[in-house]
Task: inverse folding
């Protein structure tokens, strides 16, 4: 049963609140070339009729979560949506505890170092430290990456039992982000097993062209994965074998220093 169906069948769910979030989720579909949505775009993405979409966009605008361009009559998210992200990061003791170790690893390695939180079939970047200038989207928090195609994601999956791992993979949408993205399930399972043995996952151009990645899981005191530390570098700077040889020990040392949370 889908999450949407579960919400529809739950008598305690306030349907109008769900519809408001469906409108907000529409803005996940915007691009750098089309940064705003028209009312008809919102109707198309939500399936709402024009009157319903208009009421919800107006309400969200009045609450300060949506901006309306009066010239184009198109909508965009407002600065207020960042408030929730700020307070989440400010109040998360795990992120606060781990962040100094990430910064130190970034300074030592001169790699991009990130903390990606485990969220079902995906990982979500919560902290990103850059040593050098990178492409813009690589520095943004909140970016989601399918769990099967990152070293950190595979390392997280290696910490789960077979049933949990298979359930996540069953519900994952396998997408080729590059020509090198591995979509064969058996190969992915082999990489997960290897990540479990080594303590880290190693990837080459699985999510972004030119990117080499290392990732290792961070676990709680019961061994359940909470997140992963990710290290990334452009392959123009180093070959995959040398990247692993040089940086995997630094990554494992950092994970050991943090310990179980």
Result:
């Amino acid at each position: 049963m889908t999450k949407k169906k579960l919400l529809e069948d739950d008598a305690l769910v306030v349907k109008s609140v769900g519809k408001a979030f469906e409108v907000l989720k529409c803005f996940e579909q915007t691009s750098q070339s089309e940064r705003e949505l028209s009312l008809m775009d919102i109707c198309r993405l939500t399936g709402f009729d024009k009157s319903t979409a208009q009421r919800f966009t107006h309400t969200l605008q009045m609450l300060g979560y949506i901006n309306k361009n009066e010239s184009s009559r198109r909508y965009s998210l407002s600065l207020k949506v960042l408030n929730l992200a700020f307070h989440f990061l400010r109040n998360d003791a795990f992120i606060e505890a781990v962040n100094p170790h990430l910064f130190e690893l970034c300074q030592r390695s001169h790699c991009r170092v990130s903390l990606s939180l485990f969220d079902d079939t995906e990982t979500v970047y919560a902290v990103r430290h850059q040593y050098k200038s990178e492409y813009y989207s690589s520095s943004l928090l909140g970016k989601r990456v399918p769990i099967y195609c990152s070293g950190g994601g595979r390392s997280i999956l290696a910490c789960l039992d077979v049933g949990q791992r298979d359930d996540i993979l069953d519900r994952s949408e396998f997408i080729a982000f590059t020509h090198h993205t591995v979509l064969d399930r058996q190969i992915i399972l082999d990489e997960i097993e290897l990540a479990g043995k080594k303590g880290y996952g190693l990837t080459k151009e699985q999510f972004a062209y030119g990117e080499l990645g290392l990732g290792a899981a961070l676990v709680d005191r019961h061994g359940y994965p909470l997140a992963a530390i990710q290290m990334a570098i452009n392959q123009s700077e180093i070959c995959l074998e040398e990247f692993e040889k040089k940086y995997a020990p630094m990554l494992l040392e950092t994970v050991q220093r943090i310990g179980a949370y």
